[in-house]
């Protein structure tokens, strides 16, 4: 049970990181990014491929983070000047393109066979994985990212983002380079998803393209909306609740709920959807979001 | 004297509909230049074009001796030519003070590296900006509202806040789009005094206004726009007597 908890907590921290990245883009800037999983995949594949080539994990993680951030740049160039809905559809397309590249570029990613034997974070210390240590590192990374982001949103840059989110036309009239603000937010959010991807790859030790379906993006969206867009702590709380729910319902069978597993998997989607509808109706600002 | 802003033969059509046609105007430094005209004359379009929000089809715009045609609105604002809006566009969720503070240009804390590696510098600059904002709010008589979310203040106060935000950029030229619209008479008198005081301090104004009483007493020179063209320009006393102006306003008494 303890090891199960550790494993779940580790994955939950990955989701927290993803939610923090998206919350910067959506909650603090108003960018509708429906392709968040693309940055996650880029981080995961970059770090996995590099570390399989013998590059130390620290550097491969760093490379994955940077590449995920850089990859967001062209997307921003194409779409940031456009309205939000265009950004949404282009990013969604981008995430599918990234996944399909991973699926088809056999020489690079081994396609549907996936990349096995990705070294774990502490592989240089020996073959045995220390789950606890892993989880603590994930926790520390999450806390560090959270602290960096808290500083960011309390800074004049963060205040500029809020102003732009309120009225970008007025912000431009007051000399704010709206495109540059949004671009930075998009790139930082993507880089955070890149870290999450790298950690995920090293943790799972095996990655395949189907881990990076658009549904991951939408789980993260649910977490951010649940926690309250614009609140970093909310993003973390939302991720935790969503994750506990998604994983926790596995155990419902033990408490006498007689529904077979496949059916219950479908039922979970229904419950998540229903929960989201209720939330939007009765607490649209999310659990920790500010009332508008 | 060299002009501060000069627009030459600005033409702009929207889908075949000519909104501005051969508009030329100049704003001299230290002046208050008024722009009047009936609804739909193209005044706001002219302002938006000058401020870079709309690209003219033809024509040249120069500001402080350099061409600003094709520049982004934020670049023009950073050069010290700041436009306010006809309908206030306050940052509603931000406090009145934050609306002011956020408008300060080139803040240290807007550059990402400073946020994590130069926080001290960011904080000390922040104090100065805050002080400046508070001084300006006092001047605008908005001090009592500084911690109020901007969406909660009245329409007239929002107009003042628009002016205040623009002043945070230390502009040379303020382009005010109907600053007196929806402002009560008492506040309008205050606002007139403020504009005069700011002009005495060296600011230049270009003002669109429908309130003839206000603009005729305030402005040194007036441009009358009608159907996208400059009908006439000159000192208020001259413009008031012009028959074409009266016609453009459909014969209504303009004073």
Principal-axis shape of chain B equals: globular
Secondary-structure element string of chain B: EEEHEEHEHHHHEHEHEEHH
Largest sheet of chain B: 6 strands, mixed
- Percent helix among the residues of chain B? 25-40%
Question: By helix and strand content of chain A, what is the structural category?
Answer: mainly alpha
3D architecture notes:
The complex is a heterodimer of chains A (292) and B (255). Chain A is an all-alpha fold. Chain A has one domain. Chain A has helices spanning 2-27, 36-52, 57-79, 84-104, 106-109, 131-154, 156-166, 168-173, 178-204, 214-227, 232-248, 261-282. The longest helix of chain A is centred in the middle third of the chain and has 27 residues, at 178-204. Chain A is globular and about 60 Å long. Chain B has 255 residues and is α/β, with parallel strands linked by helices. Chain B has a six-stranded mixed sheet, sandwiched between helices. In chain B, strands 2-1-4-5 form a four-stranded antiparallel sheet, with helices on one face. In chain B, strand 9 and strand 10 form a beta hairpin. The two termini of chain B are 31 Å apart. The mean pLDDT of chain B is 89. At the A-B interface, helix 6, helix 7, helix 8 and helix 9 of A face helix 2, helix 3, helix 4, helix 5 and helix 6 of B.
Summarize the structure.
The complex is a heterodimer of chains A (292) and B (255). Chain A is mainly α and 292 residues long.
Descriptive tags:
heterodimer; A: 292 residues; mainly alpha; 73% helix; 0% strand; B: 255 residues; alpha/beta; six-stranded mixed beta sheet; four-stranded antiparallel beta sheet
What's the layout of helices and strands?
The complex is a heterodimer of chains A (292) and B (255).
Chain A: H1 2-27, H2 36-52, H3 57-79, H4 84-104, H5 106-109, H6 131-154, H7 156-166, H8 168-173, H9 178-204, H10 214-227, H11 232-248, H12 261-282
Chain B: E1 5-14, E2 17-27, E3 32-36, H1 43-50, E4 58-63, E5 66-67, H2 73-78, E6 81-83, H3 96-102, H4 112-117, H5 119-139, H6 155-168, E7 173-177, H7 185-200, E8 204-208, H8 212-218, E9 221-226, E10 229-234, H9 236-241, H10 243-248
Parallel strand pairs in B: 3-8, 3-9, 6-7, 7-8
Antiparallel strand pairs in B: 1-2, 1-4, 4-5, 9-10
Helix pairs in contact in B: 3-6, 5-6
């Amino acid at each position: 049970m303890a090891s199960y908890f550790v494993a779940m907590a580790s994955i939950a921290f990955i989701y927290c990181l993803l939610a923090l990245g998206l919350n910067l883009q959506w909650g603090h800037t108003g960018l509708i990014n429906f392709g968040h999983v693309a940055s996650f995949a880029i981080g995961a594949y970059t770090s996995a491929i590099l570390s399989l080539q013998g590059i130390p994990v620290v550097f491969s993680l760093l490379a994955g983070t940077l590449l995920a951030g850089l990859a967001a740049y062209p997307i921003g160039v194409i779409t940031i000047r456009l309205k939000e809905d265009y950004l949404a559809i282009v990013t969604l397309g981008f995430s599918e393109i990234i996944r399909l590249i991973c699926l088809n570029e056999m020489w690079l990613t081994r396609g549907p066979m996936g990349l096995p034997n990705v070294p774990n974070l502490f592989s240089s210390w020996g073959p045995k994985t220390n789950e606890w240590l892993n989880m603590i590192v994930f926790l520390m990374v999450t806390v560090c990212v959270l602290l960096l982001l808290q500083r960011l949103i309390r800074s004049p840059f963060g205040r500029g983002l809020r102003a732009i989110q309120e009225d970008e036309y007025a912000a431009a009239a007051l000399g704010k380079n709206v495109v540059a603000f949004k671009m930075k937010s998009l790139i930082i959010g993507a880089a955070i998803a890149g870290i999450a991807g790298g950690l995920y790859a090293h943790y799972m030790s095996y990655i395949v393209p189907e881990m990076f379906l658009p549904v991951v993006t939408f789980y993260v969206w649910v977490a951010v909306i649940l926690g309250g867009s614009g609140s970093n702590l909310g993003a973390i709380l939302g991720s935790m609740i969503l994750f506990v729910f998604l994983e926790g319902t596995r155990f419902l069978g033990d408490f006498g709920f007689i529904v077979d597993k496949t059916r219950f998997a479908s039922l979970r989607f229904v419950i998540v959807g229903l929960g989201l509808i209720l939330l939007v109706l009765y607490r649209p600002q999310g659990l920790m979001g500010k009332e508008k | 004297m060299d002009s501060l802003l000069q627009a030459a033969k600005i033409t702009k059509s929207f889908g075949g509909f000519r909104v501005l046609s051969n508009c030329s105007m100049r704003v001299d430094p230290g002046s208050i230049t008024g722009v009047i005209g009936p609804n739909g004359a193209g005044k706001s379009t002219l302002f938006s074009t000058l401020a870079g929000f709309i690209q003219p089809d033809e024509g040249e715009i120069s500001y402080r001796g350099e061409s600003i045609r094709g520049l982004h609105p934020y670049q023009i604002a950073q050069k010290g030519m700041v436009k306010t809006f006809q309908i206030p566009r306050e940052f509603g969720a931000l406090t009145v003070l934050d609306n002011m503070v956020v408008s300060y240009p080139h803040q240290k804390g807007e550059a990402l590296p400073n946020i994590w590696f130069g926080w001290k510098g960011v904080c000390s600059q922040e104090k100065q900006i805050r002080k400046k904002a508070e001084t300006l709010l006092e001047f605008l008589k908005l001090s009592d509202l500084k911690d109020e979310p901007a969406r909660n203040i009245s329409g007239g106060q929002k107009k003042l806040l628009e002016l205040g935000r623009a002043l945070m950029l230390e502009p040379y030229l303020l382009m005010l789009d109907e600053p007196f619209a929806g402002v009560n008479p008492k506040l309008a008198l205050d606002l007139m005094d403020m504009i005069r005081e700011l002009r005495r301090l060296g600011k230049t104004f270009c003002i669109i206004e429908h309130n003839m009483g206000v603009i005729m007493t305030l402005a040194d020179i007036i441009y009358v726009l009608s159907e996208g063209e400059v009908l006439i320009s000159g000192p208020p006393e001259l413009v008031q007597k012009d028959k074409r102006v009266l016609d453009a306003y459909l014969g209504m008494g303009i004073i």
